[in-house]
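Q: My collaborator sent me two sequences in one message, no labels, and asked for predicted structures for both. Can we handle them in order? The first one she listed is below.
A: Yes, handling them in the order given. First sequence, followed by its structure tokens:
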Amino acid sequence: MDSVKDDAKGVGYRRVEVLTGPGRRRSWSDDEKARIVAETAEFGAKVTEVARRWQVSPQQVFDWRRQARRALAEATAPVTPSFVPVVSGPPAPTLEAGGCNGAPGALDRVAAGRRGAAHCA
């Protein structure tokens, strides 16, 4: 039968270790996470000290900070349309295949100073 006084060598008491802190997985509310992240953002604050004060892993606090940065970037990103609207206008005037007089190459010159205005010979 085992006794508290028994150990591997048969001498003295067994070592008893008392665990402090949370004994199970905790769920943190968004407000608590925001409060912890805000504490780490103060001037001179160290993440490890804040994490120790709140009894949470520093890696968890770094992850919450990363999530907060992403959420802030998404919230402040400019809204861009997911498509480009099509704007239609009147069709551009074109010369028919035969030119002005029906003969190929009948287009002779473009009037000076008037962009796109064609004159027939």
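Q: And the one she listed second?
A: Here it is, processed independently of the first:
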Amino acid sequence: MDTISAEAKKMSGIIKTANWILNPTGMLVLEGIKQANKLVDTASEKGIDDLQAEVAKQEVRLQFELKQAKIAQELAIAQRISEAETVEIEEFYDLSGKVKAGVGIEEKSANIGMSGEGTRVSKRIYTFKGRVVIADE
């Protein structure tokens, strides 16, 4: 029984190492989620005030990390643009909206209502061709 348990632990470690090698970004996200869950569980045991404070901290942290990821993405795109021979950028925009208005009249009251919604979709497609090679002189 102990041999099976030891071998299972060893195999689990090998699988975890392989996941880190093959998908480091996914593993970082997974570890971040595990850590956030531990913090929320710890705060929830202390009470609702601590739990709300931890959730607020997690939301701020998530917004900060999202902004950092967008900056890193833009820097990576800029790097690829500077290294490519030619770059094609296609941009698509779609703006759409709906408006509804209504009037309701009853014996003792009248209602007037209006509602609206809008959506904006933008998409950029980058196509990189070739690579600029700088030769050392």
